[in-house]
Every structure is written in structure tokens, then in C-alpha cells.
């Protein structure tokens, strides 16, 4: 028996940048290998461009942000969402 993979877009795991704290240092952009971040030429700031490219459970870029501007959802809450999706509820 095979189980269908859960569509990535149903799992709300990705970083959020606090624009008040962000210094625009680009450390997150340079660190992430999955293309989640991008430089927005219009706002002259880093943005979360491809949130669903983020690896579920990864929070590696959070530690790279000296300004403490990056946050993630509660991992336990995400695990519960995944459990419910697997159970079809
Ligand atoms: S590492 Fe932090 S301060 Fe630097 S650009 Fe990313 S979010 Fe902004
Ligand atoms: S958590 Fe990992 S995959 Fe997601 S944006 Fe940060 S470094 Fe990239």
C-alpha cells in the first residue's frame, strides 16, 4: 500500500521576517540553499519569496540572523497538522 504525499502547500512551515528588526544584512539569503529568500529591489529588503521551498522542520537560518528577526511556527503545532493530514482529518 502506498500513501500519497502531503502537498507541501498544506504545511505552513516557513520563516517570517520581522521588518522592524531586519537590518538587511542578507545572511539568511546567503545561507539558505533552497531559494526561500530573495532580495526585493523595490523595497531594498530581503523577503520570503518561496515559502514552500522551505524544508519542513529546518530552522537553520534563524541562528544566522544576528538581529533575531526570523521566526518560525511552533514545531509541535506543525507536527499535529501533519498528523491530521495523514489521517485524512
Ligand atoms: S539575516 Fe536577519 S537581519 Fe539579515 S537580512 Fe535576514 S532577516 Fe534580515
Ligand atoms: S529553515 Fe532552512 S530551508 Fe527554510 S529558509 Fe531557513 S535555511 Fe532555508
Structure description:
- With 89 residues, this protein is of the alpha+beta class.
- The chain has one domain (13-83): Alpha-Beta Plaits (2-Layer Sandwich), CATH 3.30.70.
- 26% of the residues lie in helices and 13% in strands.
- A two-stranded antiparallel ribbon has the order 1-4.
- The chain starts with 15 loop residues before the first strand and ends with a helix.
- The mean pLDDT is 95.
- The structure holds iron/sulfur cluster (2 copies).
- One iron/sulfur cluster binds at residues 17, 22-28, 46, 64-65, 67, 69-70.
**Bound small-molecule species:** iron/sulfur cluster
CATH topology: Alpha-Beta Plaits
The CATH class is Alpha Beta
State the CATH architecture: 2-Layer Sandwich
The number of E-state strands comes to: 4
Element order, helices and strands? EHEEHEH
Biggest sheet strand order reads 1-4
Tell me, briefly, the overall form.
Answer: elongated
Terminus-to-terminus distance? 19 Å
**Cα Rg:** 15 Å
Share in β-strands? 5-15%
Helix content: 25-40%
Total individual domains = 1
As residue ranges, the low-confidence spans are: none
Estimated structural class = alpha+beta
Mean pLDDT: 95
Main sheet: strands, sense, barrel: 2 strands, antiparallel
Number of helical stretches of at least 4 residues:
3
Amino acid at each position: 500500500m502506498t500513501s500519497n504525499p502531503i502537498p507541501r502547500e498544506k504545511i505552513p512551515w516557513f520563516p517570517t521576517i520581522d521588518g522592524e528588526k531586519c537590518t538587511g544584512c542578507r545572511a539568511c539569503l546567503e545561507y539558505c540553499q533552497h531559494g526561500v529568500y530573495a532580495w526585493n529591489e523595490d523595497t531594498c529588503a530581503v523577503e520570503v519569496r518561496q515559502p514552500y521551498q522551505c524544508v519542513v522542520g529546518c530552522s537553520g537560518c534563524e541562528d544566522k540572523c544576528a538581529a533575531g528577526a526570523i521566526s518560525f511556527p511552533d514545531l509541535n503545532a506543525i507536527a499535529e497538522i501533519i498528523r491530521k493530514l495523514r489521517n485524512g482529518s
